[in-house]
Amino acid sequence: MEIKIATRKSPLALYQAEAVKQAIIDKHPDCICELIPLDSEGDKDLRPIHELGGKGVFVKRLEEALVMGDADIAVHSLKDVPADLNDEFQIVATLERANPSDSIIFKESITLDQLKDKSIVATSSPRRAAQVKLFNPSLEVCPVRGNIHTRIKKLKDNEFDALVIATAALDRLQLNLENVEKIDSSVMLPAATQAIIGIEVGRDINPQKLEIIKSINHHETYFIASVERKIIKYLEGDCNSAIALICKKIKESTFAVNLRAFDHKSLKVEKIDMCFIEAELDQFYLELFNKIEDLKIKELISN
Known about the structure:
- There is one protein chain.
- By secondary structure, this protein is an alpha/beta fold.
- The chain folds into 3 domains: about 120 residues, D-Maltodextrin-Binding Protein, domain 2, CATH 3.40.190.10; about 80 residues, Periplasmic binding protein-like II (D-Maltodextrin-Binding Protein, domain 2), CATH 3.40.190.10; about 60 residues.
- The protein is about 35% helix and about 25% strand.
- The chain has 11 helices and 13 strands.
- The strands form 3 sheets. The protein has a 5-stranded mixed sheet with strand order 2-1-3-10-4, with helices on both faces. The chain has a 5-stranded mixed sheet with strand order 7-6-8-5-9, sandwiched between helices. A 3-stranded antiparallel sheet has the order 11-12-13.
- A hairpin with a 6-residue loop joins strand 12 and strand 13.
- It is globular.
C-alpha cells in the first residue's frame, strides 16, 4: 500500500510529516510512504495572517492536493487548521500531544521576570501578546512571521529582545538554544490543540488507507483535540481572537478545561475552569456554552 503525505515545506512541518510516516511504517511495514512537500500561501506571503484570510492559508494548498488526488493525507500542526472544517475534509487521527506550553527565548541570560520595562517581545499571536501584556504592561509586543529558524535569526540580529515560541516546536527540531525559559501555565495558557499533529483526509479516501491512518491514532489526544476544537468553533474564534484553551486528563475518564478569553485592546480577561466526566460530555458542553453566553465572551473576543 502506498500513502502520499502532503506537508508544508518548513523544517517543523517536514519533521511532523516524517513522524506520521514513521508511525505508519512502524505499524504497517509493507506500506510505502512518500512525502509531498508543498508551499502554502501562508509560507510564501509573510503579511499578517488576518490579511491573508486567516488560518486556512496554511492548509488550503494541502487540501487542494487531497482533492486532486496528488496526496492521500495531509499532516498539519492542528492549531493551524480552522475549527470549522469544510465538509469535504475530516481530521481522522492525531499523534500523541507533545508539551503544549510556550517558551520565551532571550538575547541574553535572563528570565521573564527580569525583562526590562519597554523590552520588545516578538509574537504574531494575539493570545500570546495579550498574556505578555497582562504579565507586564510595560513590555512592548511586535509582530514576527517566518519559520522558526527565521524568527530566531531575527532575535539574534537584535530586531527585538525576546521571542515567544511553542515549546513543542523547539523540542521537535532539537533546537538546544541558550537563554530559553518555559512559560508557566499560570502566566500563559496555550492555544487550542497546540502541540498536536493532526492528520486530515478527504471524504473519498480509499477505505483501506483510512483504516491504516486510524490505526496510528492516539485516542486520548484525539478526544482532547475534538473537545478543544468544538469549543473554538462555538466561540467563532478566528486568527485575530485572543483565546487560550486547554483540555487535559486529570484522572481516569475525568478531564479539566481551562479557558481564557481576552479583549486584546483593553486586556480585559474572562476565565472559565471546569471539569467533566467523559460520559457526560454533552452536559458539559451545555453548561460551558451557557457560561460563555453569560460572560459575553463572544463579544469580548470580537473587539
